[in-house]
Amino acid sequence: MKNKKRELPYLLFLLVMPILGLIYKILNNNPREAVILSTEVDGMIPFLPVFIIPYIIWYAFIFGYLVYFWYKDTRVYMKTLTLIVVGELICFLIYFFFQTTVPRPKLVGDGIFLDLVAMIYSHDQPYNAFPSIHVLTTFAIILGSINIRNKHLFHSIFVPAMGSLIILSTLFVKQHYILDMFASMFLTSFIYGIVFELFEFKVSKKQDTAYVKD
Fold this sequence. Notes:
Keywords: Membrane, Transmembrane, Transmembrane helix. Helices cover 63% and strands 4% of the residues. The protein is built from 9 helices and 2 strands, in the order H-H-H-H-H-H-H-H-H-E-E. It has helices spanning 2-6, 16-27, 40-44, 52-72, 74-97, 112-123, 133-146, 153-172, 178-198; strands at residues 201-204, 209-212. It has a two-stranded antiparallel ribbon with strand order 1-2.
């Protein structure tokens, strides 16, 4: 634990997340024509308000597991955070030049799930859809978790299970289309291969400093 205290400053890199959120908000508008990337498959996917639960859990899932990665292996934490930052910056570039939109269903009825969907809809404009940042960041955590050694069985099962629910939730609450999901997973996989195979991070330990390549 003493070594982890020496590595506390690395948690400050998490401050980049609200900055990315601000950029997202600035781009989440429609000053130009937005494209709809719906497919026949999307038309067959039902609107299931209950999936708003894993959709919202995403916020704690990303932050919580980044902190967990830092605790278990600072190098994996830094690589995963780098993967997320680079991925989101590429998404922002795409949003600027190729804005897409996802028409939302009319919310009829009442209930806690519909209320939560309405809350998300009111706080997140229906743009910035391709690729999906929700999917990109979730898939980054799933891939990063593979590199965590000696983790509890709970995390080995929970991360891919909850991650999959979060990714699917983007479709069932009509925040994204199939193409948004696959584009994010492809982009994340591509960046993952570069960051985890080619990048080296210098992490100071109590007794030595070394470059380690996972």
